[in-house]
Design a protein that fits this description.
Elements (H helix, E strand, L loop, with lengths): L24 H4 L1 H23 L6 H4 L4 H29 L12 H17 L1 H14 L2
Helix pairs in contact: 2-4, 4-5
Length: 141
């Protein structure tokens, strides 16, 4: 009679010892990154369509008036979720958690708090360079 094999928890993800081993982390979260990339690409395309015709909304938003607030809310949620995913990745790296991919899931408070942190960090630094580049482009063409 054979004894059943003992199955324990899966082997922990080994800690990275070199920088190129860190490139495998996004492969573990490909499904989250795929949905997030699709959402951000769709929002970018809609923003480009809006900027091409500054006199009116794009054709797919022109038919229904209620879709503008819904589109803006969707854009804010996708951007906030991207900030939440980055915040979870940074906090798990700081904690030394290499075994799992942390993501904000349905924790709206975490998503909004991390979006606020990333927005504050953007306003504290890179917005100065972006504004300078914008005004240079505006006045030099």
């Amino acid at each position: 009679m054979q004894s059943p094999e003992k199955t324990g928890p899966p082997a922990p993800w080994p800690l990275e010892t070199c920088w190129d081993q860190c490139l495998l982390y996004p492969l573990r979260a490909w499904f989250l990154l795929l949905y997030l990339a699709g959402g951000l690409a769709g929002l970018t395309g809609a923003a480009v369509l809006t900027l091409l015709d500054p006199l009116g909304p794009p054709a797919f938003l022109d038919r229904q008036q209620w879709s503008w607030p819904g589109f803006c809310l969707l854009a804010l949620l996708v951007l906030a979720y991207a900030c939440g995913l980055l915040q979870c990745a940074l906090s798990s790296g700081l904690a030394g958690e290499a075994g799992k991919v942390r993501w904000p899931a349905c924790d709206l408070l975490l998503v909004l708090r991390s979006a606020g942190i990333w927005l504050l960090c953007f306003l504290a630094g890179p917005v100065v360079l972006v504004a300078g580049g914008f005004f240079y482009w505006l006045h030099c063409r």
